[in-house]
Amino acid sequence: MSEYIIKNGIVYDPKTGVKGEVKDICIKDGKIADKVSSKAKSIDAKGKTVMAGAVEIHSHVAGPKVNEGRNFRPEDKLFSYKPGGKNTRMAGGFSIPTTFKTGYEYAKMGYTTVMEAAMPPLYARHVHEEIKDTPIIDQGAFPVFGNNWFVFEYLKNNEMDNVMAYISWLLKTTKGYAIKIVNPGGSEAWGWGENCTTIHDPVPYFDITPAEIMKGLLTANEKMGLPHSIHVHTNNLGNPGNYKDTLDTFKLAEGVKPNNKFGREQVFHHTHVQFHSYGGDSWANFESKAKEIMDYVNANKNMTIDLGCVTLDETTTMTADGPFEHHLTTLNHLKWANVDVELETSSGIVPYVYDPRVKVCAIQWAIGLELGLYTKDPMRSFITTDHPNAGPFIRYPRIFKWLMSDKSRQEMLKSFKYSDKVIAATNLASMDREITFYELAQMTRAGPAKALGLTDMCGGLAPGMDADVVVYNIDENKIKDPEEIEKAFGTASQVFKSGTLVVDKGEVVSNGNKRTLWVDAKVPTNSQVERDVQMKFLKYYSVNLNNYEVSDHYVANPYVIEVEN
Amino acid sequence: MSKTITDVVCPFCGTLCDDLIVTTDDDGKKILGVDNACAIGAEKFVHSSDHSHRVTRPRKMQEDGSFKEITYEEAIEHTATILAKAKKPLMYGWSSTSCEADSVGHEIAELCGGIVDNTAAVCHGTTLIAVQNVGIPSCTLGEVKNRADRIIFWGCNPAHAHPRHMSRYSIFPRGYFTGKGAKQRKIIVVDPRPTDTSTLADVHLQVEQGYDYELLQALRAAIRGEPLVGDVIAGVPKETVYEAAEILKSGRFGVIFFGMGVTQSLGKDHNIDAAICLTKDLNDYTKFSIVAMRGHFNVTGSGQVLGWQFGFPYAVDLSRGFARYNPGETGAIEVLKRQEADAVFVLGSDPGAHFPMRCVKEIARLPSVAIDPHITPTTEICDVHVPVAFVGVEVGGNCYRMDNVPIEARKVVEPPEGMMSDYQFLSAVLDRVKELKAN
Ligand code: SF4
């Protein structure tokens, strides 16, 4: 493998505590090295920023709902197609890009690891087929557990060993990475057109509450010592006044200590918190509760969050929260796709326009940024758009700009049609914090890598780690115009993925060595669970048990993380 | 000693039953029996295992119309050459093969500026258009089994076209919340004629041929309690429409299954728009889903792979270097009618039997290749016929059921000696196209 030396870059690396020092970064055999031989190719990074490859903790980029989004929105492909090149396939789409485009665009921004945040187990093979066709980036997928009938029944009966055996089996069967929970109980209730809007609403017919589901899965996760914590999208997403439900959910983790060998310190990850930080009791008095939410997060070290920033674009919302998407289609009257998945989950898709002229949308925009700016520990608060829900991932550089430049935020705030009302309903106008490059590296690299249990592998530049390295053509101390931030982070000068140069001068030059990450969590064999699985497949599933597992050949270049219990 | 293979997937219809048990002879070459399959499914296995009727080597049409055997290498060269030379080759079919094969085919099409279309062109293409207009509230077939107490079959006759659909998912099975099986379900069949499916119905709405749209809109109005004008609507007495509306509304979980009787009758995608809107409306009162009765065992998969690779489910035109989609313009039939393609490649379908005669003549006129295990009307008019192993019998691969659930088809027997699979053939063509394009 080639050796590289990236010379004289301004390096930001929270993993090694390097805060903007001029340094050389060496790459050898796909890893970061202390030194390289004289044969190493040299990259001149003088005056440029060097960071580790970015790590995306929560995105919807592969699988049934993403593809339904593509197929039912031909309009999303307008003006966005690029022909293939020497190293690339033709690629298009804006909020739901094709698999090829997903790989290229993430890589061009310097992202090298991306997690698909909701995999319906029955559709796991589809998720992996798409992952296989997504070039360059390492990926993993989180199977959904929060509406699973096995989980309901075991938790209801307090059978923790059985829950763990089932989790272990499902992760292995679907080649999944972590325990995802979406609208616990509510997506099952949606099977009857109903919902659980608070964490104490019982799930129809299952005699269990969302709080019990989340607490139970949290306990199982820590007992098993999985690399990531539970990854939660709680109940009552998107409704005025829901911050109370969010705080109720956070409290479930109080006093729980992490148990794992992967360096993760949280026991609970709450995703796209922007959608869960709403005050008021109607759209008329809708307001930001970002401060209340972040006060709690800042004070509780055993949890992490990601932001879910609204980018003010037309996009395609999609989630395993089926009742929410039905609610959304009744609000905006745009087309609605829904799929309820037997014994496992539901899901829905609705296009959405975050129009800056609409007061609510502008307030949502402000809330996402407030969450970022109230953050006291950037190692526990990560930048996402919940792609494509609050906006497409290609807008990350724009969010960086807003977080890093008070000027750019104030200009936006002033430009809104309902500027005064937006300012009154939020605190953003009074916040002058500007996120630094070092903090950005925490919020997009070191932090998410640590929360995922990958802290020794990616998100940092310590010798021995994967050589995921990005060079951006920008110098933090010489920025004259905030637009420079968006430009530089949108098109990296160079990106290395595990030591392979994949992007050079903003162009994709290689499809790299993409891997699929999954977790093999070993627990003692459990004949009760084996019998239950057989019985449920026989009676209630529509596919046979023996046709359910994702066989190895669908998993692109697997990287298996083994966990011993 | 015979061998028994369980959990076999049936590669015939979109029901994609995955519980077949196939018995083969000792050396795994001949299929002796197929359990659990319906008559058509079983026949597919048994028939494919009888090699005496099969063409096992590629054939090239001679001047006099007769066929002469050629080697696979010659067939690969021929296929790669016509595709690489063409400016706008039509690459049609993709519905009776695996997603892995589809994927390789798409790469060839991308390199050659082809038009990729699948059999949705003549079945549920209208559904896909309707979904693009209004979306689709849907569910997996297991949800139907476990929850549904209201079933509508609209313009389809599963008793004949999807024979095990009713027993596996829709009418007879007992599920978690449907312990009484068929007794717990009310069945409505909408069909101009009595069929074997309509004999099972609680209500048979004998819609007047071509009036599906009116009936659907009348049901939407009736559900909202709006007055219906006229005593008979679309051939159905007004009272019966109200009765049907009441049945739908009073259920706890309902599903509409619809087929080509409504996708290809007058109104086409507008019918499906209305059917989806009816489903959406019903969700204001109860829980309702709608599912297309897809025909070929993997037509759904073709749409899925096209979707993630190019963003559109069928009728994808790659000839300009980017993917374009405009059904009515970029679909196989229109392209043939306008005489716009300059080569034809067919795999996993039989347009010779199903396309309008003008299009069939056009296929016969153009340089062409047909890939198919069988001799079909299409293979008889193409310049070269390449027989391949049966997907789901002699080679495995991923397929998508009508509800988009992916199921991996299994290999149960060996193909006749020396025969290639779709995937192998396409991969070889891809390699050769790359070489030709490089020069
Ligand atoms: S119903 Fe369809 S998939 Fe099932 S056995 Fe019959 S032909 Fe095969």
TrEMBL record, chain A:
Domain Amidohydrolase as annotated: residue spans: 43-502
Single GO MF annotation: hydrolase activity, acting on carbon-nitrogen (but not peptide) bonds
PANTHER family (UniProt xref): COLLAPSIN RESPONSE MEDIATOR PROTEIN, HYDRANTOINASE/DIHYDROPYRIMIDINASE FAMILY MEMBER
Protein name, entry field: Formylmethanofuran dehydrogenase subunit A
InterPro entries: Amidohydro_3, Formylmethanofuran_DH_asu, Metal-dep_hydrolase_composite, Metal_Hydrolase, Metallo-dep_Hydrolases_sf
Xref: Pfam families: Amidohydro_3 (PF07969)
Superkingdom per UniProt: Archaea
Species for this entry: Methanospirillum lacunae
Automatic annotation (TrEMBL), chain B:
GO molecular function: formylmethanofuran dehydrogenase activity; NADH dehydrogenase activity
Domain of life from the UniProt record: Archaea
SUPFAM superfamilies registered for this protein in UniProt: Formate dehydrogenase/DMSO reductase, domains 1-3
GO CC terms of this entry: membrane
Record-linked InterPro entries: Formylmethanofuran_DH_bsu (IPR016457), Mopterin_OxRdtase (IPR006656), Prok_molybdopt-oxidoreductase (IPR050123)
Pfam family, one: Molybdopterin
Keywords: Oxidoreductase
Gene Ontology terms describing biological process: methanogenesis; respiratory electron transport chain
Residue ranges of every copy of the Molybdopterin oxidoreductase domain listed in the record: 54-431
Gene3D superfamilies the record matches: 3.40.50.740, Dimethylsulfoxide Reductase, domain 2
PANTHER family (alphabetical): FORMATE DEHYDROGENASE H (PTHR43105:SF14), RESPIRATORY NITRATE REDUCTASE (PTHR43105)
Protein name from the UniProt record: Formylmethanofuran dehydrogenase subunit B
